[in-house]
Amino acid sequence: MSHPPVTAGTLVRLGFRDAEPALAALHRLGADAEPLLAILARTADPDQALDALVRLAEVVDDRDALVEELVDDEGTAMRLLCVLGASSALADHLVRHPEHWRELTDPLLGSTRPAAYAVRADLLRAVGADPDAPLPTATLDDAAALDALRVEYRRILLRLASRDLAHHLGLDDAAAELSDLAAGTLEAALAVARQRVAGAELARLAVVAMGKCGGHELNYVSDVDVIFAFEPADGADENDAARVATQLASHLIRVCGEHTTEGTIWPVDAALRPEGKSGPLVRTIASHRGYYERWAKTWEFQALLKARPVAGDLALGEEYVAMVAPMVWTAAERDGFVADTQAMRRRVVKNIPPREAERQLKLGSGGLRDVEFAVQLLQLVHGRADESIRAPTTLSALAALTRGGYVGREDGEALHEAYSFLRTLEHRIQLRQLRRTHVVPTEEESLRALGRSMGFVKDSVTALDKAWQHERLEVRRLHEKLFYRPLLTAVARIPGDEARLSPDAAGKRLAALGYLDPKAALRHLEALTSGVSRTASIQRTLLPAMLDWFADAPDPDAGLFGFRRISESLGESPWYLKTLRDEGQVAERLATLLATSRYASGLLEREPQGVRMLGEDLSPLSAEVLTEEMLASGARRDDAEKATRSIRAIRRRELFRIATGDLLGLIDVADVGAGLSRLTDATLEATLDVAARAVRRARSLDTAPTVMAIVAMGRYGGFELSYGSDADVLFVHQPVSGADPQAATSYATAVANEVRRLLALPGADPALIVDADLRPEGKQGALVRTLDSYAAYYAKWSKVWEAQALLRADAVVGDLDLRTRFEALVDPLRFPAGGISEDDVREVRRIKARVDRERLPRGADPTTHLKLGRGGLADIEWTVQLLQMKHAGQVPGLRTTRTLEALVAAREADLISADDAEELTHGWRTVSRIRNAVTLVRGKPGDQLPRDPLEKAAVAAILGYPAGEADAMVNDYLRITRHAHAVVERIFWE
């Protein structure tokens, strides 16, 4: 029976992309090859498979025999063509070594896994070594041995890949075979090394595999992580043995990694050894023990979880593993366990190149590392008391954790499927060119072949992406649940099949995740999740993610406790839990601020409705908007105290907005200062209105006998307020025409006192202390003066320090005309046309020296005091102010109350070099950020860099340092302020 001729259309329907070249290739094989089309259509890349088959046919001894055998033996055809369609690298190998195609004719290939000892023996024989010798040593010429090892490695890899692709070997079996192949390769490389090294018999050398090779879960292409342990052979000198062992290990690494005419195998990486790349390549067992007992970090024990002897002296390797095992299974009890593991996790994510982040199978969010990290952390926490969960292989460990109740059954199965999918996808990507990569390609052609290799024949690109994104989301979701869901079942006694931890095990898990008081944390969880109410049900849904975010923040205990208090306050509000459940950004922001900032948490506990703001724009509002709202709120209440409380409630809300934006890194430090200053403007404006109405009512006045203004001074006048700052002000008034001067002054004084009283009243919001001590004659002088009185005082009595204080004077509140006239009055004083005299310069320096000597608190460290320390705020601001007093009369840009603006003007006028201006700017911004962060963390102002480790870590986190990098923050601060102080020495002190 004749078959219709094969056409280009036929090939397109079968999955070929370029039909005309494929048709030509098929004709080159001959008509007898047409039955192979059905199998070619099932390969990852039919075009590549057919092209490679033609290339192979051109180099085999008998082309017709090849085609005939493939047509007659469907198993062989499936194995060969699947390899050719999935791996261009193995196709190239077959063209170079065409005799190897017959390896795929073995009928047992699809059902029998080769024993590890047999793989080892084949690789040793390839280099001419006796597999049964006590110390197998290569006998082939060195170059020939290297090539032979690579050819044999590819031959075995070819058989493995064909079984994996054609017979669906399964992830566990494929990874285990790859690990056995790596172990045998290391043994053969050591045999070559023995041939190279004289006296090789002097050292017992064990090669201990780490990572995926140690865990029997290696990729197709991966670095093979190892640690070398040695001991002197009987009668050998230890120094001689160390020298020989080092040479053997070095040559082993080179044998595997060198490029020859037959390519390379893979890099051997010994960087996981004690002291990393800077440490000795080989150590004795005793030396390893000494390092691990004294110096090793937590992540090193996590890496040792998968240690397995694979080559060399296996008995010595087993001794090494037995030595480290007790340390591995007590690592979770070490100080810094949580910080170390979190730092390692963040370091991994940070090192992902940005262009790869969304396509990283291994390191990206929802990737393989999420599963592996979670499983290993659970093992380290619970494996101390439960030996059944100590399996080094990820999927085996996950199964054991599921059987033991540490992971819910459904979650365990879902995570197994997701991990298997991602690892299989990783294998298929690497097989294509036998390159070490974990990045999903972007090219349509590569994605099409990749999708088909994963079994997605129809719409392969779309189907692959859909499946991959689904599994990524599953991994991320389950990564959160893996730690926290069983905690909730332990405390809430959720009925059903979900796994339950004992309260003791739940407490241990919380401790391992950074909760310092696990018992209290369990009480909070029980309060939040107990019962069958809708609220408890939603909390059980929310808490896995919330607990994860708390654990990533500096103070998880405070985060959980704060969340309980907020939830108890708002739990019955229908919008609260719905917002947290449906708007992930709100929930994450809430977790971050509760576990980082006492200041923001305190504001939120006083005003729980602020949770709504976490989904909004957190930029500070303008003074105009705030003033309008506060004036309207105050005007609706006749009672002055009630009116002021309503104004202060708005201020509390806006303090929370600014603090949260600052905490989350959404607002620049200069904008924080400006935002706090504008908020103070609006608060004073509205409170002045309330106080004036109250005084008029008390005195039965229809109209005010004077107009008033409030002048901002100090950091308030400079738009540089911090969270704990008082509002330094001057009060000024001007009687209206015909008013009695004494009555006007009495009225103005009463209003000023009422403003101060109302804003200092105890209440739910932080009080705003209005400080008028910078007024003429200080506390002994009149609280309020007329414009003429200020003019008379400054003309007769003003000192240079008062002119310096007026550099920050900004009339911001009250009567606009009076404000303008006040600034016109003081401008000649603070910005003198000819600058200040040398005597005045010396006086400024004398006062500064006295401040440095007398005002630094007793016991304070001058290197870390944020305000008065070396290179601190006072140093920088006094330097800028001296430049202003000397040059503002001639340089208009210096006539500003703001430090950074004045620095820019001084640089543009060449009064200070660009480098010096940059050092001062960087110093001012850094110290200001830290000062704000200290207040946010502690909930109260502080001018000293924290010493408490928890507070220091929280400050570092606010400044954007990764977990565990608080000391780096301190070092950066010391360096930056040292540079700023050097500029101050040159510019201020000359």
Automatic annotation (TrEMBL):
<keyword id="KW-0808">Transferase</keyword>
<keyword id="KW-0548">Nucleotidyltransferase</keyword>
<dbReference type="GO" id="GO:0000287">
    <property type="term" value="F:magnesium ion binding"/>
</dbReference>
<feature type="domain" description="Glutamate-ammonia ligase adenylyltransferase repeated">
    <location>
        <begin position="588"/>
        <end position="824"/>
    </location>
</feature>
<comment type="similarity">
    <text>Belongs to the GlnE family.</text>
</comment>
<keyword id="KW-0547">Nucleotide-binding</keyword>
<dbReference type="InterPro" id="IPR023057">
    <property type="entry name" value="GlnE"/>
</dbReference>
<feature type="region of interest" description="Adenylyl removase">
    <location>
        <begin position="1"/>
        <end position="487"/>
    </location>
</feature>
<feature type="domain" description="Glutamate-ammonia ligase adenylyltransferase repeated">
    <location>
        <begin position="79"/>
        <end position="318"/>
    </location>
</feature>
<keyword id="KW-0511">Multifunctional enzyme</keyword>
<feature type="domain" description="PII-uridylyltransferase/Glutamine-synthetase adenylyltransferase">
    <location>
        <begin position="847"/>
        <end position="987"/>
    </location>
</feature>
<comment type="function">
    <text>Involved in the regulation of glutamine synthetase GlnA, a key enzyme in the process to assimilate ammonia. When cellular nitrogen levels are high, the C-terminal adenylyl transferase (AT) inactivates GlnA by covalent transfer of an adenylyl group from ATP to specific tyrosine residue of GlnA, thus reducing its activity. Conversely, when nitrogen levels are low, the N-terminal adenylyl removase (AR) activates GlnA by removing the adenylyl group by phosphorolysis, increasing its activity.</text>
</comment>
<dbReference type="Pfam" id="PF08335">
    <property type="entry name" value="GlnD_UR_UTase"/>
</dbReference>
<dbReference type="GO" id="GO:0005524">
    <property type="term" value="F:ATP binding"/>
</dbReference>
<dbReference type="GO" id="GO:0047388">
    <property type="term" value="F:[glutamine synthetase]-adenylyl-L-tyrosine phosphorylase activity"/>
</dbReference>
<dbReference type="GO" id="GO:0000820">
    <property type="term" value="P:regulation of glutamine family amino acid metabolic process"/>
</dbReference>
<feature type="region of interest" description="Adenylyl transferase">
    <location>
        <begin position="495"/>
        <end position="990"/>
    </location>
</feature>
<dbReference type="GO" id="GO:0005829">
    <property type="term" value="C:cytosol"/>
</dbReference>
<dbReference type="InterPro" id="IPR013546">
    <property type="entry name" value="PII_UdlTrfase/GS_AdlTrfase"/>
</dbReference>
<feature type="domain" description="PII-uridylyltransferase/Glutamine-synthetase adenylyltransferase">
    <location>
        <begin position="344"/>
        <end position="483"/>
    </location>
</feature>
<dbReference type="InterPro" id="IPR005190">
    <property type="entry name" value="GlnE_rpt_dom"/>
</dbReference>
<keyword id="KW-0460">Magnesium</keyword>
<dbReference type="GO" id="GO:0008882">
    <property type="term" value="F:[glutamate-ammonia-ligase] adenylyltransferase activity"/>
</dbReference>
<dbReference type="Pfam" id="PF03710">
    <property type="entry name" value="GlnE"/>
</dbReference>
<keyword id="KW-0067">ATP-binding</keyword>
<protein>
    <recommendedName>
        <fullName>Bifunctional glutamine synthetase adenylyltransferase/adenylyl-removing enzyme</fullName>
        <ecNumber>2.7.7.89</ecNumber>
        <ecNumber>2.7.7.42</ecNumber>
    </recommendedName>
</protein>
<dbReference type="InterPro" id="IPR043519">
    <property type="entry name" value="NT_sf"/>
</dbReference>
